[in-house]
Structure formats: structure tokens, C-alpha cells
Amino acid sequence: MTPKYLLIFFSLLYLLSFNSQAKQCSVNLNYGVIIDPSHIRIIDHGKTIMQINGVAQLFIEGREIPLKNEQQHLVAEFANGIRKQIPEIVSIAIEGVDVGLKAVNKVIGGLTGENSASQQKIQTNFDELKWRIRTRFNQSANNYFIAPQDFDDFDDIFTGEFEQEIEEIISDSIGTILLAVGEAMINNADNENARNEEQRISTFDERMENMGKDLELEITASAKVLAKKAEQFCIQMTGLDKTESKMHQAIEQLKEFNLIEIN
Q1: Are the beta carbons of 242 and 262 closer than 8 angstroms?
Q2: Domain map of the chain by residue range?
Q3: Which of 21, 126, 138, 201 has a beta carbon 3.0–4.6 Å from 226's, enabling a disulfide?
């Protein structure tokens, strides 16, 4: 009965909102990247190994590399691509988490009522988490940081620092939902003394099933939007990898530093 629908809710949450955005996106970042309005820095173990100032002023390990016009065009193209795609990584990852959190919040609201104490508590936890995630990767306007990692799965971006906190919020949410289910069934029984037990259970099952169907439709639609964004991200990063390869051919000093790797 009820546990079946709870299983549906959280299976949807994990399978649709967290893990479906980035199927077959085999893009690796071999170094960390820091972006601010004036610079792009490529970081290896805390050390800046490559830096682009302005449009196309290139530094390798602190030394400026004189560039010809063609080389400047390649560096500028690469820099513009980095400035566009790194924020997109952060946006897709945060949006994926947001879809899952909204799903949990909707279930709790449906069971306990909109703006109930339970829903407000969970919503506060969600809002605080999303704020910390965003400030972690987007510290201020037009300033971004991302560590070296692969993007076979976009939720890997949160491994470590936020992973445990996300799991704790989900666990707390499950507890809140189970409590709300119990209260809802008790209230349902109190309000429907005229009905027999079988009718009461059938009515509650129907309510839960309808909620599950609504949630499935909503999450599936959001997941499809995210999947499209992730697909486009992979296409753009593949193009940027080709630009980086051209830079390696045109600028001898860059050959040792391969930021983007496509598997």
C-alpha cells in the first residue's frame, strides 16, 4: 500500500532528476578552472599552470607567450568557450539537484498541506543547501570555480562536500513523509467514520497513486529539459576540445597542458 508509493516517489527522484541529465557525456576536465571577469586560470594542485588575461594574452607557468594573429584568434576562441561552458556545468548540476528537491517538497506539501511546519522546515533546508552550492561554484557575479573531474554523471560534481548533506536532507524528508502519511491516515479515519476500513484504505491509496502520477509527469518533463541541456553541453565541449587541439598544434608551449579530454 503506502510504502509502494513512497518507493515510486524516491525511485523517480533518483532515477529521473539526479542521474538522467548526462548519459554518455564522456567529458573530462584534467585541471581545475577559475574564471573571473579579467582572467581564466587553469590550476594543477593549487598552482596556476596556464592563464589567459583579457581576450588573448597567454601565460604558461607565469611566463607570457608572444602570439601571432592566428594564435591569438585560437586562444580567444578557447577562452570564450571556457567562459560560456564552465557556468553551464554549474547551472546544469544545480538545476538537477533543484528538480529533486522540488519533488520531495511537493510530496511533503501534498501530504501535510502547503506551508505546513513540516514543509517549511524542509524548504528552509533546501534553500540553505542551494545557496551554499551556488556560492561554492559561483562565488560572485561572473566568478566561477570548478575542480578537475569527469562528467559521465553530472551529480558527481557534488561528490564529497555536498553529497552527505544531500543524503541527510533526503533521509529527513523520508522521515517527514512517513510521519505525514501516518497522520493523514489517522485524520482520514477520524473524518470518515461512516465508511468501512476497506473503503477508507482504497480512498487513501487512490490519493497517493494520483500524487505519484502527477509527480512522475512533472519530474519527467524537467528531466527531459535537463537532458537536452546536458546533451548540448557535451556537443559544445567536444567542439571546444577541437579548438584546444588546434591551439596545441599552433602553440608549442601548450602541448603539455590538455584541459579537456573526450573519451
Answers
A1: no
A2: 2-28+92-141+151-252
A3: 21
